[in-house]
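The passage that follows is intended for readers who have already worked through the single-chain material. We present the inputs for a multi-component assembly, then the predicted structure in tokenized form, and finally a short commentary. You are encouraged to pause after the input and sketch how you expect the pieces to fit together before reading on.
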Amino acid sequence: MAKKRVTYVCLECGYTSPGWLGKCPSCGTWGSLSEQSPPPAGESGKRTSKGADPVKLSEISVPSDARIETGIGEFDRVAGGGLVRGGCVLLAGSPGVGKSTLLLQVASRLAERGERVLYVSGEESAFQVKLRAERLGAGGDEIYLLPETSVESILSVIEEVSPSVVIVDSVQTLSTETAQGLPGSVSQVRESTALLVDEAKRRNLPLILVGHVTKEGVIAGPKLLEHMVDAVFQFDGEKGHPYRVLRAAKNRFGSVSEVGVFEMTGSGLAEVSDPSGIFAGSGAGGVPGMVVYPALQGMRTLLVEVQALVSRSYLPVPRRVSVGVDLSRSQILSTIVEKYCGVSLAGCDLFLNVAGGWKIADTGADLALVSAILSGALDVPVPSGFTCFGEVGLGG
Ligand SMILES: Nc1ncnc2c1ncn2[C@@H]1O[C@H](COP(=O)(O)OP(=O)(O)OP(=O)(O)O)[C@@H](O)[C@H]1O
Ligand SMILES: [Mg+2]
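Having made your guess, compare it with the prediction:
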């Protein structure tokens, strides 16, 4: 008789080992390896049941209402014109940035348009969500609230309520009987997402999942999660600033260069439909180290102010600090300034900042950053009305 082959899978990172280990060699977690038996004969290898029939591409018709507009312009812009039926969006953001607020507002606007929304909250009780809804002025008869974390229960409620949009806050709290491990573990997140995405595709309803981010800023859970969904939106904001920026890191149905800008207020997130000037700083002319650059975001141009402060250092190793600019990029640019502009930054601390909590994601800001560093180092302000953009290569 053939010996039954057993493998051990890490419930945190998915690492597979032929034997049991106390510590996962891949992610370093203790006690996370769990025994997994191969599926019974017949379930793998040979196909036993007939799947879907192939359809000619030319014979497939796209319904005219393939997209559902939420009515929140900044959200629809990032989504590529609205939520796609059967499409799954993963909305990720750091704690407290306003994910639940944004989605409750989206739910409310959809309900006003006659869409039935199922809002599944695995993190807050119904009463807590209601409190927030009252503060936001959100509501409507067509929003169904479900404080639940079991995927099987959520699927049966979807069957019962037949919503036209489902929002799940958050995917890390979900658990399913078909996977092992605690909620938030790799196997639970993967399996729960797969079940919900399958159901959404089958019923042709848009699904929005909230995802947590780790302290390193990446989406918690398996990388596979980002492949399983149709779009990944990131909701960002700098501490102490009211502005929040929604970007698409991936979108199967739209451009990833569009951004949505919101302002966090006491009554929720307000759309900033003309954000051209909000990241341009105080506009204090005549101050060295301040340069405004036009950042092209999809169909819009935003004016963003980059700021550089260069001062004498009292430390053996001068400080290089950057907020809103990638540290390696700022180090490359400061070296370019030293090498090709003949300005020495040795013995100087260099602080780079971007006004309004904006985060620079394109190399088009290079020239503005170089100008700001030069202006700060030479203590010479740039002329008023000066703006520049362009990538700076290692050759200067
Ligand atoms: N009364 C209020 N006035 C102004 N802003 C408020 C008020 N109450 C909450 N906020 C803002 O809302 C934020 C919390 O929003 P929300 O709960 O939607 O965030 P979240 O991203 O869902 O957080 P979590 O990851 O913890 O679920 C707070 O950080 C704060 O900025
Ligand atoms: Mg929340």
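Commentary: Residues 133 and 139 are 6 Å apart (CA to CA). The chain has three domains: 1-38, 67-273, 277-378. How closely did your sketch match?
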